[in-house]
Structures are given as structure tokens and as C-alpha cells.
Amino acid sequence: MRARSDRYYATRRGLARVGHVLVLAAFVTFLAFPFYWMVLTTFKETHDLVDTKHNPFVFNLPPTLENLRILFNDTLFIQWVLNTLYVGIAVTAITLVLSVPAGYALARLTGRWGQRLAIGIFLTYLIPPTILFIPFSRIVGNLGLQDSLWSLVLVYPSFTVPFCTWLMMGFFKSIPRDIEEAAMIDGLSRLRAFVRVVVPVSTAGILTVVIFTLTLVMQEFVYALTFITSSASYTVSVGVPTFLVRGDVYFWGSLMGACLIVSIPVAVLYNFFVDRFVAGFTVGAVK
Predict the structure, then answer these.
(1) What phi-psi label fits residue 191: left (phi over 0), alpha (psi between -120 and 50 degrees) or beta?
(2) Dist CA 116 CA 134 (whole Å)
(3) Which CA distances in Å does 241 have to 2, 42, 77, 244?
(4) pLDDT 10s per residue in the chain (287 long)?
(5) DSSP secondary structure string for all residues of 65-125
(6) Cα separation of 113 and 264, whole Å?
């Protein structure tokens, strides 16, 4: 009887492992397929890509570098990437300078007003860009920043700062007050206690803010299309579809090549810091 019970539980454990492997394989396949498709399309010849008789999931003709040649030689792709990095770094710095102290202040503010202010700040993030780009256009025009990357540096914090403030507030609430109070008893001011004690233990939340901000800047389209008119000042999100979609002609190979080149660094960044990224998003909810 006991041997039969052991075999039963061993069979259940084996089936559970098989089920776990199958579920994991399904998720890996689902998540990796977009990258596989981008690689496949990037190096496919146009005839191989559009011929309906060919298998779309394999190379039916030898791979080609023509799509990448078009991307790098016939467009300003490298300049667009540099523009995006320039805007992303500037916006990330502004977002950190504003959202980290604001999140800390809201986390330590007691009473109803702290919660109300936090909700009010978060609600500003929910306002659609299609409503705001008209008044922002007036502001950008009055400041003489039209067709300048500084217009994007000015506008993008309007949606990165509110959400990141809310995010950091939840993170700071999970940090015990006793840590900074002990530092203040040792002679540090509140500001120095915040800088020397609270910020070092908040790296997960700060890293989440950095990744989230860079991702938003890279994918934003409406403001970049509205405020930038010259091709040399385009960001990736505007330059790639503008120059690689000509009427009803889509340069699919070059489009997928641009998506692949831009997405790989972001995917690698998420992969290296996934634990801290998840902790930054969830630690405020756990408390």
C-alpha cells in the first residue's frame, strides 16, 4: 500500500514538473517570438517577405543586409537614436530631481492632505496627450523652442514626473521611519539623512524610475511629431515611420531592423535589473 502511495506521489510530482516546463516553454515562446520575427524580417529579401507562397517563419532565400543598408545609409537613423538618448537622459535627470524628493515628502506627509495630493498628482498622469499638446504648443511657441529637442525636454516631464512621484511615494512608505530618525538622532539633518540613508536603500525604486522614463521617452509619438519638424531633430519614434513608410509602401525589413536595434538594449536592461524593477513596482503595495 505504501509503495503504491509513493508511486502515486512520484507520478504527481513528475506530471507537475512536466506541466511547469510546458507552461514555461509556452511563455518563453510567446515572449521571444517578436524578437525572432524582427530578426527574420530584418534579414529577409523583399521578394521572400511578400511572396505568399513562401513560409513566413523561415528564410526561403539567402539572408540579406540590404534592409540595414537602407536604414543606415538612406535615413538619419543614427542621428535619431542620438536625439532620443539626449532627450531621454535629460528627461530622466529632471524626473529624478523632481519625483524623488516629492515622493519622499508625500510619503512622510501625515493626514488627509498627503493622500489627496498624491491622488491629485497621479490623476495628472491620466490626462491624454491629445488634450495637452495644443496648450503645450502655445507654451513651446512662446518660449521659441519650436523644432528643438529642448521642447521635448520641457514637455515630457509633464507625464513622467507624476507617475514616478506616485511610484517613489509607495516605495518610500515601505521604508521604516526609524532609519532616518536614528540618523537624525546621530546629528544629521533631515536632508542629509534623506541623502545619506534613505536614497541608498531606495535604489530599486530609483532604477524603476530610470527604466520607466527612458521607455516612455523612446515610445512617445504625439509630442515629438507636433513639436519637431526637421528630420535631423526627429526622435526614433517619429523618424522611423516617417521615412520608412512612404504612401502605401512599407519598408518592412528596415522597419523591423530599427525596432530590433532599439528594443534590444531596453530588453537587456530589463533583464539585468528585472528583480529590482519588479521590487520597485511592488514594494509599495506589499506594505
Answers:
(1) alpha
(2) 28
(3) 67, 15, 11, 5
(4) 556 666 766 777 778 888 888 998 998 899 889 899 999 999 999 888 888 888 888 888 889 999 999 999 989 999 999 999 999 999 999 999 999 998 888 888 766 776 777 777 777 777 787 788 788 888 888 898 888 999 999 999 988 988 888 888 888 888 888 887 888 887 878 788 888 888 888 887 888 888 888 888 888 888 898 899 898 899 999 999 999 988 788 899 999 999 999 988 888 877 776 665 555 555 544 44
(5) SHHHHHHHHSS-HHHHHHHHHHHHHHHHHHHHHHHHHHHHHHHH--SHHHHHHHHHHHHHH
(6) 43
**Residue-range domain boundaries for the chain:** 2-64, 68-286
Is residue 239 a contact partner of residue 75, using CB atoms and an 8 Å limit? Answer: yes
CATH of domain 68-286: 1.10.3720.10
pTM: 0.83
Please list, in sequence order, all residues whose beta carbon lies within 8 angstroms of the beta carbon of residue 22, skipping any fewer than 6 positions away: none
User: Residue 192 corresponds to which cell in the numbers above?
Assistant: 542629509
Instruction: Spell out the residues 6+ positions from residue 119 whose beta carbon is closer than 8 angstroms to its own.
Output: none
Full DSSP string of 6-45: HHHHHHHHHHHHHHHHHHHHHHHHHHHHHHHHHHHHHTS-
Cβ contacts of 131 within 8 Å, gap of 6 or more = none
Q: Cβ distance 35 to 259 under 8 Å?
A: no
Which amino acid is residue 126, in one-letter code?
L
Cell of 90: 535629460
Instruction: Judge residue 168's burial from the number of C-beta atoms within 10 Å of its C-beta, 0-12 exposed, 13-18 middle, 19 or more buried.
Output: buried
